[in-house]
Structures are given as C-alpha cells and as structure tokens.
Amino acid sequence: MPEPAAILQMGPIGPHLDQQLGQRGKVLRLWEAADRDAALDGAAAGVRVVVTSVRLGCPAPLIERLPRLRAICSWGVGYETIDVAAAKARGIAVSNTPDVLDDCVADLAWGLLIAAARRTAAGDRYVKDGQWRAIGQFPLTTRVSGKRLGILGLGRIGEAIARRGAGFAMDVRYHNRRERPGVPYGYESSLVQLARWADFLVVACEGGASTRHLVSQAVIDALGAKGILVNIARGTVVDQEAMVRALAEGRLGGAGLDVLEKEPAVPPELLSMDQVVLMPHVGSATRETRRAMEQLVLDNVDSFLAGRGLLTPVHVG
Ligand code: 8YV
C-alpha cells in the first residue's frame, strides 16, 4: 500500500507554495486528479491538513469526508468560502493570511480613491485617444486632500487605509459593529450617518452573510451626488444594483471598485462610466505580497505539523 497523503491541496495557489508544499509530506493535488471523487475517497483516511485559498474554499461536505482532518490552512485574508463553523464543531483549526497584505490592499484603496476623484483612468484614455490635442482641456475633477474619509470596517486593512489619510490631511471616521477603544479616529455607530458625513466611503470590512448589502440604497443616498465609494473588500457588501442605478442617475458621484458582486461579471452600465474605475480583484496582487502570503501558508502548515498549532488562526464567534 502506498503511503496515504497527509496534505490535501485544493488547487494551484502560487509557484512558491505549490512547489514547496511537497517537502512537508505527501500531497494530494486535487486539481490534477483525473477522478476527484475517487482520489478523495482514496486519501480521505490519511488527510490531516487541507491547503486551500479564499477562492478555492473548503465547504462542510468536504470537511465531513475527511475524518482525520485537524487543520485548514488558507491563502487569503478572507475566509467566507471556508465553513469555519463546521470546522470548529469538529475541533479543526483554520488559518488565513492576515497582516502581510494590509499595505498593498490599502495602497490600492488609495489608488482607486484618487483615480475615481481625479479621473486618472479617464485622463489616460483621453491622452492616448488623442483627445488632448483634438478637444483640449480635460474636465475639472474632485479634490482629494483635506476631505472627509469614512471607513467601513476598521480592521487591520481599514487601519492601514486610515493611516494613509494623515498624508492627505484628511479627517477620518469609521463604522464597525463596535467602537474600538484607543484608535485616533471618530466612531459613527450608524453607517448612514458616516456616509452622510463622508466625502469618500471606503469599504474594508469582511465579506460573507453578515455584511451582505450593508452598503444599502440608504447608505448610497447618504453618500450622495458628490460622494465617492471605494470597495476593496467584497462585492457582496454593496447593493450593486442600487449602486449602479445611483451612479447612472448621478445620485452617487463616483466609485473605485476592486471587487464586484458576481466576479468576474461586470454590470455593462459601468463600462462606459468615466466616474467609475474598475480593477480585477487584485488588492493583494503584487509579487512581494503574494510571495509573503504563500510563505505564511507554508509557515502555518509547518507550525501545525510540528505540533505547535497554527500561527495565524482565524477566531470566530
Ligand atoms: C485576493 C483577497 O486578491 O485575501 C483576500 O481575502 O481577497 C485577496 O488577497 C483574492 O482572493 C484574489 O481572488
């Protein structure tokens, strides 16, 4: 009998991780199996660790098929695609990759904010399409410095976004489920109030059922015709239909979006809007950060296999 795989890898994650994981033990690379069900059945009794990503997930039925599973190590800070409750019920620990991506995601949030306010993507098209010469002066845009920045979700990424606000002389406030003691930013217990106050509202909270459509029609209306919405979190946090309507009718000033509700589907109305800047869900997608995320998954696997538990466990409920 060949030795059963101790590690189940759900799909390709990155060259460093994909290559290094095999040095930790026998790995079942599920995406390479001709018959996934048969491969899972064959390996089920041996698997102690699942290596996955926020994209690939780890649903309850899979957890149920692996009686010896003790750890799920995931790539990505979000974990809404992993059934953490099902794992917890079986005493299975779950890790994600926090901290290492905060700066890159915050950088992109600011890139989108500035791009939406100053219309840098539209300006780039204007120059490259020859309109500078043909039409002349580009239309006036919206000032960024000195404005009011509202943040939905003052976690690690939200704080990194808030810190950068100081460089732009911005007044920063936030909305969370609960006020965070000791942070130097004003707390708004109502998201509608925060949106009414803010010039820019940046979405940086977690995804999943608990935050679905938190940015509702009422929040969008409160942000208003001069307001700009930035989302680097999850498309599901925003009522996308309401947002598209408000943008089309000029009731929302603009948007910078790294994420959409049903990626990679893009509402066609957005394609022709110069007040909207879109990116293909790449908040953490720099060479440096992706490498660090891969390494953190490996470090979690190593720590678990050495009996020291996970380094960056997810804590829920
Ligand atoms: C990735 C992410 O860019 O970590 C997360 O939760 O969303 C990002 O790091 C994304 O998963 C790519 O699809």
Short overview:
By secondary structure, the protein is α/β, with parallel strands linked by helices.
Description:
This protein has 317 residues and is an alpha/beta fold. It has 12 helices and 12 strands. The strands form 2 sheets. Strands 8-7-6-9-10-11-12 form a 7-stranded parallel beta sheet, with helices on both faces. The protein has a 5-stranded parallel beta sheet with strand order 2-1-3-4-5, sandwiched between helices. α5 packs across α8 (156-167) and α9 runs parallel beside α10. The chain binds 2-keto-D-gluconic acid (8YV). 2-keto-D-gluconic acid binds at residues 54-55, 76-78, 101, 281-285. The site of 2-keto-D-gluconic acid has 11 residues, from loops.
Features:
317 residues, alpha/beta, Rossmann fold, 2 domains, seven-stranded parallel beta sheet, five-stranded parallel beta sheet, 34% helix, 15% strand, elongated, binds 2-keto-D-gluconic acid
